[in-house]
Amino acid sequence: MTSRNLQNRVDPWGKLHAVPNRGELMGNRGILHNDSNAIVRPWAHKAWVTCLLQYNGIKRPKPFSPGNYSELFFIDEATAFAAGHRPCAYCQRARHREFKDAWVRANVADELGASTLMSAIDRVLHAERCVPGGRKVTFEVPLIELPIGAMFEYEEAAYLVASAGYLPWSFDGYGAAVSIGRTAVVKVLTPQSVIKAFVEGFVPIVHSSGRI
User: Fold this and answer.
1) pTM metric for this prediction
2) Cα 74–50–80 angle (5° rounding)?
3) How far is CA 44 from CA 10, 28, 37, 91, 98, in A?
4) Do 16 and 161 form a contact (C-beta atoms < 8 A)?
5) Which pLDDT tens digit goes with each residue over 128-143?
6) Residue 172 per-residue DSSP state
7) pLDDT at residue 111 greater than cutoff 90
8) Distances (CA, A) of 98 to 123, 152, 158, 161, 204
9) Mean pLDDT of 42-48
């Protein structure tokens, strides 16, 4: 399955690019393309998910096939979370449950947690990741407050908070750790409620270049 010329590679801001790097996860936001395979909308629904590239031998149609959702690709789960996506409940059932449980513990009062629906979580995530027109929602905190797995913008570049330090992001993977003052105030790309889930103990999977 190839989609080299399609605008479907997702960066940590949630923007779509036409680059050859496919990445380690697939996902969707609904049908975003027209009959010419051009992107015409930033999303079609609020349930932005990430999916496995292969699952149970399912053969997917060619990307951007007529009437099919627009297949998007991420270099890793940390990037997908930063863009505002979360694990699919079908092909990533266990991962989906793990994330939902951590998210609910971190963001919902104990007496309400058991009744929290995924649709309600998706509404929160949608408000935290973008505004009409597709502009990215961010918030600012001192870098020292961010947990492992969070992604942030600093001097117009994206970085991952990793055990090895602050790793610059690219579609090829992560670069060597750079020195940034821990008290520096940065723009956080990962949605705020997801950051809270990370603090609760959920750790996103990162590209091999970031596993140092």
Assistant:
1) 0.94
2) 45
3) 16, 9, 15, 20, 26
4) no
5) 999 887 789 999 999 9
6) T
7) no
8) 19, 23, 26, 21, 11
9) 95
